[in-house]
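Lay summary. Proteins are chains of building blocks that fold into shapes, and those shapes determine what they do. In this project we predict the shape from the chain. Here is one chain we studied, written as its sequence of building blocks.
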Amino acid sequence: MRNILTATPAMALAAMLTMGSLTGSVRAPAHAADLYRFAIVPKAMNNPYFDLARDGCESEAKKLGVTCTYTGPVEQEPAAQVQIIQDLISQHVDGIAISVADAASVKRVIHQARQAGIVVITFDADSPDSERQAYVGTDNAALGRALGQMLLKAHPKPGPFAIVSGGPAAANLAQRVEGVRAVLKPAGWTEIGGSPTFCNDDSALGVQQMTDLMTANPNLAAIVPVGGWPLFTQGAFTSFANAHKQALTSGAFSIVSADTLPVELHALQAGQVSGLVGQRPFEMGEKAIDIMLALKKGQAQPVTTYAGLDEVIKENVARFNKP
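And here is the predicted shape, written in a compact code that computers can read:
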């Protein structure tokens, strides 16, 4: 390819647009913002929750005439996430938004990115002690409290409960766990030993952990996944729910879960869960692009931007379960 610096203006523009198309994003008509390339890095690309953040990022990028590249480890692996961020630094992208798998592991690589003049923010999961410039996502303590309150409504009689979490080093999930405990324990609920379990965002493992919890604790009154992982594997979760259908139907056993993906809404309609507290990952993706572009242009942004929560029960699920 001819060097862009020595090509005619028209040839240079065509070359830049061609290179942009290789990222998989569609660009708007060329203007100054077309030069900006941003990346969004999830904890794991096999988690359908992050597909919505990708969609929001790409939708907003198209409107603004910038590039959004979605890249991350296939499965949750902090070291792999760090390597991908280092690769993006070497590509000299203009901004990176990270859903942090391990708050400590990314601090050094975020420092490297900032030293290279790259805008860095976090979304969904934060690393507040790093040099990231902003966070956009859920108020995770509030999400945990909402899960606890939803369980109290669905299952007023206190009993033993367990929590299923994702990665043990994820600060956002730890905040959700503490939010659940802050509501349930004063209400007389007792968390069993071995809770929370950590499925590392692996859906199949999340269902297996729920099965193991019930086997080891036949009188368990509730399980609270602070992320929707176990419900994402529809067949396996349906098998689990069917195995405990009598307890779920009678109200002796309850499940409330974070997130409101379509497969989870289906589980709610089927009576397999009592309620869901949804995050807004599409909105996070949109706002991540807006914030990175503003910071790149030197415009001050709030350090923290919260996306909202959606509380979904059987009575209002039709409003969220859109075709």
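What the prediction tells us: The first helix runs from residue 9 to 21.
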